[in-house]
Design brief:
- The complex is a heterodimer of chains A (115) and B (117).
- Chain A contains no helices and eleven strands.
- Chain A is mainly beta and 115 residues long.
- In chain A, strands 2, 4, 5, 6, 9, 10 and 11 form a seven-stranded mixed sheet that branches. Chain A has a four-stranded antiparallel sheet with strand order 1-3-8-7, with no helix packed on it.
- In chain A, a hairpin with a 2-residue loop joins β5 and β6.
- Chain A is globular, with a radius of gyration of 14 Å.
- The model of chain A has no long low-confidence stretch (mean pLDDT 89).
- Chain B is 0% helix and 56% strand.
- In chain B, β10 and β11 form a beta hairpin.
- Chain B is globular, with a radius of gyration of 14 Å.
- The termini of chain B are far apart.
- The chains are: A mainly beta (115), B mainly beta (117).
- At the A-B interface, β5, β9 and β10 of A face β5, β6, β10 and β11 of B.
């Protein structure tokens, strides 16, 4: 399997549930990202992991908890979400080395609906 | 700070028409510029890129030229197809003087393109 994969592709959860989104990159990259894409709003960067270390948290509520166990895997743990958290959640990866490729490659996303 | 501004959409064209989607940016440092495309129900795909002034990125008939003097990176295609219907995002990343990316992309708001037969 190549590129960036995300599971599940669709998720419906209640506000009291706990679920996790999974992302895996097969590109040998050293940085991974979570984005939120809502209708009518710009793409929002949520978290950045560089060499498994979280280097950015863009004021994301604590009900979203990221985990990066190694440079190929990234999780987003969800608990007690709100209906306004319904969105497409995109994972991306890139290679952050001097003079190497630095564009980000995206997975297909998880469409999350909070009921 | 860094920002990207795209032309307002949606853009509706007939098949074989000429496409231009304008993109301008403000940036500190040395920006690299990208166009991404998002087809319905999918994630973003890198369409083309340019890493320095006067570079032209091209792919699948799309082109964009990095214009430092006008801080622009307009996307063009000479003859669009129905299959080009998608959302197009202009984006930039900043490299420091040593060429290392800071790892963040700044995106424009996206432009919806619809092509009719």
């Amino acid at each position: 399997e190549t590129g960036v994969t995300q599971t599940p592709r669709h998720l419906v959860m209640g506000m009291t549930n706990k679920k996790s989104l999974k992302c895996e990159q097969h590109l040998g990259h050293n940085a991974m990202y979570w984005y939120k894409q809502s209708a009518k709003k710009p793409l929002e960067l949520m978290f950045v992991y560089n060499f498994k270390e979280q280097t950015e948290n863009n004021s994301v509520p604590s009900r979203f908890s990221p985990e990066c166990p190694n440079s190929s895997h990234l999780f987003l743990h969800l608990h007690t979400l709100q209906p306004e958290d319904s969105a497409l959640y995109l994972c991306a990866s890139s290679q952050l080395l001097a003079k190497s490729s630095y564009e980000q490659y995206f997975g297909p996303g998880t469409r999350l609906t909070v009921t | 700070g860094n920002s990207v501004t795209q032309m307002e959409g949606p853009v509706t064209l007939s098949e074989e028409a000429f496409l231009t989607i304008n993109c301008t940016y403000t940036a500190t440092g040395y920006p690299s510029l990208f166009w991404y495309v998002q087809y319905p129900g999918e994630g973003l795909q890198l369409l083309l890129k340019a890493t320095k002034a006067d570079d032209k990125g091209s792919n699948k008939g799309f082109e964009a030229t990095y214009r430092k003097e006008t801080t622009s990176f307009h996307l063009e295609k000479g003859s669009v197809q129905v299959s080009d219907s998608a959302v197009y995002f202009c984006a930039l990343s900043i490299r420091n003087a040593g060429g290392t990316s800071y790892g963040k992309l700044t995106f424009g708001q996206g432009t919806i393109l619809t092509v009719h037969p």
